[in-house]
Design brief:
Layout: E1 3-8, E2 44-48, E3 55-61, E4 65-72, E5 91-93, H1 95-105, H2 107-112, H3 114-127, E6 133-146, E7 156-171, E8 177-189, E9 199-211, H4 218-221, H5 223-287, H6 292-327, E10 340-342, H7 355-365, H8 367-389, E11 393-406, E12 409-412, E13 419-423, H9 427-435, E14 440-449, H10 455-522, H11 528-562, H12 566-569
Amino acid sequence: MAQSSWRLGGWLARAAALMILGGEDIALAQPHGVGEDGVAAATTVAVAATPGRDWQRAVALPGWMAVVTDGVAAERKNEPREPAVAADGSVEVSLRDTLRYTLENNLNLRVAGYTPRLSAEDIAARQAIFDPAFTFTLDLLKSTSPSVGVLSGAEVLTRKEYQWNFGYGGLLGPGTRYTVGFANARTVSNSSFNSVNPANDANLSFAVSQPLLRNFGFGVTKAEIRIATTHKQQADEGFRAEVIDTVAQTINAYWGLHESIEARGVAEKGVALAEELLNINRTRVQVGTMAPLDISQAEAQVSDARLRLLTARDLVRDTEDRLRLSVGVSATSRLWDKPIRPVDMPSLDEVKVDVNDAIAEAYRHRPELKQSTLNLDIDAVRLEVAKSQLKPGLNLAASLGTAGVGGPQVLRDGLGGPVIGIIPGGYGDALADAFGFDFRTWHLGLTFDLPLHNTAAEAQHAAAVLSMQRDKDAVENLKLTIAAEVRKAVRNVQTNRERVDLARITREYHEKSLDAERKKFDHGLSTNFEVLTQQNDFITASEQEVVARTLYKRALVELQKASGTLLETYDVAFDAVTP
């Protein structure tokens, strides 16, 4: 089976939409993974099409959406993105087209798509705690001071010092902090007691610290990252819920427009029947077989029927606007100001639903339940951190340092006497000493601390336990709510399906009654009033049948939404990938 995959984004960064244009034989698609472009945190929408459709096309949409489509017939490669205009000036759209336009253009989805992207950026921000840091400092010091004694080495003591230091450090998963330092200094002094002048110092240092009890472990160190990742998953589910609501809204708007067009047809039929009866009455008045008062009744019926038709026409325009709003039609689209005509007919096949299976499906697919369950993952992380804070502190610290000195060594005749020679030397000697580890200093130590009253940590732990229990109860309560919603939705489907049959039977009865009454009227065995009554009953029954069909379709949508299978039913499959 050929497949079509769409990326639908927030951090998702890609967006999804249906790409089958007017396809009929559509089968259920399975979720796809991340595509060849390697976009992380994508949400995939898949549409399965009829076998034999094997070409691919890519469409870049503004800002947040990129669509990659397989599975559309080769003969439709050049198919326009906009629907065609029919001969009567209307725009014919299938439900599948309408859903595709909605997923491409709906601004609510576009806005909702930013939330997962923002959540993904929060993950990156939290991961920054493991980013190593490089430091560099450069200092210059010059001092002049008066002599305080013969041991100062000069009457006016001057000293210049240049320092350039490098550092590198960071944090590792278990909570280990490490630093590497390289410190350098060059000192020039006029003191006669400095035997190395100028003096070059080089110092190399390594240090690590590791918590062994409190704050130990990958779980604690990465706690905020784990929480941010879970928030990202919740954002994905929130975006999925927005897609579900939008798809349901569009489907209901589509069938609502279909209903209003059918209702307009019923109103037009009512006008035709009323005008036909009026013409018959006028003929009978002219030949003297009917009183003029009966014409007034027929004329009033025509006016009432025309008033119903005006209302029905306004309702069509209103429902067209509701569909445009749900789709997100722009002013440049053909759907903006042209009449919209749905081409799909509502299926009235009876749907058998097992309540327990529907509830189980809802538990697996409802995004709000997944969001609520993910709260337990966050609670588990916070409880792990709180347990760590209850432990005493035991920290291991270790360091290793080396030092080197280099520079010209001044030889004097006695202490502070005249210079009698210089032994060459420089910065290279200091480096050789430092990196040769000739002069080493090391340290190894443990630090233990035990709070006598660890009140804050105990309160934090108690709050974490309570939060987890609260969220567990919230999950169970939400399951009860979902189960009640599913049961109600199943009952509504069954009730509205029966209403369709009853409305059809009622309409057929009134249609036959009207036909019989018209025949009696033609033979002078019925009155104008009786015909008008039967005519009104027939029009009312026809309107109720139209409403019953639409209510059944809406009940099915609500059941699919309540059971969490709406997207799968209409071949929209999510596959959110967390980075």
